[in-house]
Amino acid sequence: MAMMAVIDDEQLVRDVESRLPSLPIAYWSKHKNVVQKKASCARYPSIFELEFNNIYWQTLRSSNGTFQLFGAYYDIRKRSRIGPAVRILGMIDRIEPKVRTFCQLWFDGQKEPFIVKTFEYKYIWFNKWGNYKQGIYQPYLIACQIPKPFRGLVPASVSLVEKQCDTATNNLRVLYNRPLDDEKKGFAVCVKGLDFLYDDLSVRLVEWIELLGILGADKVFFYELQVHPNISKVLRYYEEQDRVHVTPLTLPGGQPNVPGFQHLFLSKKTTHKRQNELIPYNDCLYKNMYKYNFIALLDIDEVIMPKLEEDRTWHDLMERVVPKGLKVRNDTYPSYNVRNVYFFDRDQHEHEWAKDTPRYMHMLQHVTRAKNYTKPNQYVKCFHNPERVLTLHNHFPIACLGGTCHSYPISTDDAHLQHYRADCVRTLKKSCEEFKENQVRDTTIWKYRDELIQRTRRTLDVLGFFKASTGASGSLLRGGKDSLYKR
């Protein structure tokens, strides 16, 4: 009879913390005998008293609206006008919330919290975009200022309450992911919640991750709603190599999380989908703001492509672009945007196959694009400077530290966003035919061809995505005849 593995409390705490980074279980486990004694005002809530929602969210039910909280982050960026603060990311089922709330800030070794009035509810949306009505969960960034006696100390956790001395129903670990040497890496890429339950995009995903690696992305941060098993296999492989990080994700409140039904909801309720996407994007910003010089929000069918031959990487590109921006205004920009251009996927691949390139290399095989770009500031993607941006939208910053969100437009001579789609986005239906009728050949990506083919082949081979060869070694790995199978 097999023996059951015994796991001690310390291992259990580490395991829970890895699955739920927002839960201050390690702090609670260490101090529970002290902090849960009777306090003159608020006592530290037991982790067993917290109200969880859809696994990853914690709840505050107020007298005027319900808060679903996702994460809390320590912000000491120099340009922040409110000074050191804890920022809480979540959704509230109210527009312009009027309810007064307080932050209970718990510092290590303190028996009672330091309580401050919530400084602001920062709306991460514009009312003209839709869903601007009560009862629908709206994305917010909530700020709590650190009081002067505690400046320099990082709170262990924070609770949001309506009355100062309430025992909280939420308690979020305050994240402060700052490198020990304060040295930032170059580029992080953030990808919204993956919703590919039925689409096996695993091979395309490998090509995309490998291309980002060549371009100089230090790490890709994925959020995962529901994905095909082969996509899971790819993500786990890159996680083991520390090249990607995957955060599981759910939708808060009464929104559906059942596989299939969730996909249907997101495909039909587009505005809800867009509002929900702002949570992973901003969580990714705040978890990584001290670790990278630039953060890009990309979908897996998009890549920011340097146009000049001498610009092999994003680093090369930005080495030239940032000084150009400084000539326009004597300061760095919160973001640097590239124009969007469509690389259309022809129906059933009715195109010539590029020679000496495997047919499964989707981007290398699609080198015909619309001649015209979408309009400036429409469907752009950015390199964001995390020292300057406060809240992010898919295409640009919504709010910035120190004033207006100026974005520097990178010239299409220097770079553009290669967007691989079968069709235009719905809002561009009128001009889409014109895009399709006027196309040009653009082989800029081919400057990476040999390295990209080699890297992608190697990964697909390790993952077992090739059919076993019956002939000479590697006979299936030549030209456009590579055979793939999907498990």
List unreliable stretches of 5+ residues.
469-481
State the helical fraction: 10-25%
Helix and strand composition category: alpha+beta
Per CATH, what is the topology of the largest domain?
A: Spore Coat Polysaccharide Biosynthesis Protein SpsA, Chain A
Anisotropy-based shape: globular
Number of domains: 2
Q: Cα-atom Rg, whole angstroms?
A: 24 Å
Number of helical regions: 10
Largest sheet, in brief, is: 10 strands, mixed
Overall pLDDT confidence? 92
N-end to C-end Cα span: 33 Å
SS strand fraction: 25-35%
CATH architecture of the largest domain: Alpha-Beta Complex
Write up what this structure looks like.
This protein is an alpha+beta fold and 487 residues long. The chain folds into 2 domains: 16-175, Immunoglobulin-like; 185-463, Spore Coat Polysaccharide Biosynthesis Protein SpsA, Chain A, CATH 3.90.550. Helices cover 24% and strands 27% of the residues. The protein has 10 helices and 24 strands. The protein has helices at 9-19, 25-35, 202-215, 229-240, 261-268, 270-288, 314-328, 362-365, 429-437, 449-462, and strands spanning 52-53, 57-62, 65-75, 85-92, 102-106, 114-117, 120-123, 138-145, 157-161, 172-175, 185-196, 217-227, 244-248, 292-297, 302-306, 335-338, 340-344, 368-370, 381-384, 389-392, 397-400, 407-409, 415-421, 439-441. The radius of gyration is 24 Å and the shape is globular. Residues 469-481 have low confidence and may be disordered. Its EC number is 2.4.1.-. Its main location: membrane. It is found in: Membrane.
Task: Describe the secondary structure blueprint for this structure.
Blueprint: H1 9-19, H2 25-35, E1 52-53, E2 57-62, E3 65-75, E4 85-92, E5 102-106, E6 114-117, E7 120-123, E8 138-145, E9 157-161, E10 172-175, E11 185-196, H3 202-215, E12 217-227, H4 229-240, E13 244-248, H5 261-268, H6 270-288, E14 292-297, E15 302-306, H7 314-328, E16 335-338, E17 340-344, H8 362-365, E18 368-370, E19 381-384, E20 389-392, E21 397-400, E22 407-409, E23 415-421, H9 429-437, E24 439-441, H10 449-462
Parallel strand pairs: 3-10, 11-12, 11-14, 12-13, 16-22, 17-23
Antiparallel strand pairs: 1-2, 2-3, 3-4, 4-8, 5-6, 5-9, 7-8, 9-10, 14-19, 15-23, 16-19, 18-24, 20-21
Helix pairs in contact: 3-4, 3-10
